[in-house]
Amino acid sequence: MRAYVSISFSNKQLLSTTLHAITETLSQFNIAAFVFVNNYSFKHTDEKQMMQQAMRDIDDCNLLIAEVSDKGIGIGVEVGYAKGKGKPVIYLRHTDAEHSTTVSGISDFHIIYADNADLQVQLSNILRSLV
Question: What is the Rg, in whole angstroms, of the alpha carbon atoms belonging to the chain?
Answer without folding.
Answer: 14
